[in-house]
Amino acid sequence: MDIGSNIRAIRKRKNITIAQICEETGLSQGFLSQVETNKTSPSIATLENIAQALKVPLAYLLLKKEERMHIVRKDERKITTSGSQQLKVEHLSSTKNVRMMLVEVPPGASTGEAPHAHEGEEVHVVMKGRIYAEQGEDSAEFAEGDSFSWNACTPHLVKNIGDGPAIILISVYTESDQPGQAY
Q1: Residue 106 maps to a domain
Q2: Is residue 112 located within the same domain as residue 167?
Q3: How many CB atoms lie within 10 A of CB 25?
Q4: pLDDT of 102-121, one tens digit each?
Q5: Do 165 and 106 contact (CB within 8 A), yes or no?
Q6: Which of 28, 105, 117, 137 has a CA-to-CA distance to 154 between 20 and 30 Å?
């Protein structure tokens, strides 16, 4: 873990000196310097005191870089196409196990000629248009604002049944670190 670097980065971002932290926590400057350079590991109680002095939750000091907030600006989204129908997929953001995307389905297009399955659980919100979805023996039509979810390991299919493009917000949860194939 790189707790010391986290402490130093937060302290500098907030324009707090080592002396100010030491004054509030009672720690020596030498000790805090060693903590910030990862040369010593403080106790949980000491980390709690440092977190209070920095005005951040203790848990925030313990986060790895990949666990912190990840920002994707609208004009920086990765855009791909999926399937023979060339569905437009805008990748919004992701964590280790959850991905969110906007999928644009042209009129009459679908996720494939036949239902398909893959790892994960999906939650869908129809943002625009009208779609038909089926999974096994279940099927339904959905309009703007409607939502549905399913376990993607059961074969499923989604089709745009409206006159214009349909846009679906999809969140996919997978237990593995490997990105699953949604749409």
Answers
A1: yes
A2: yes
A3: 19
A4: 999 999 999 988 888 899 99
A5: yes
A6: 105
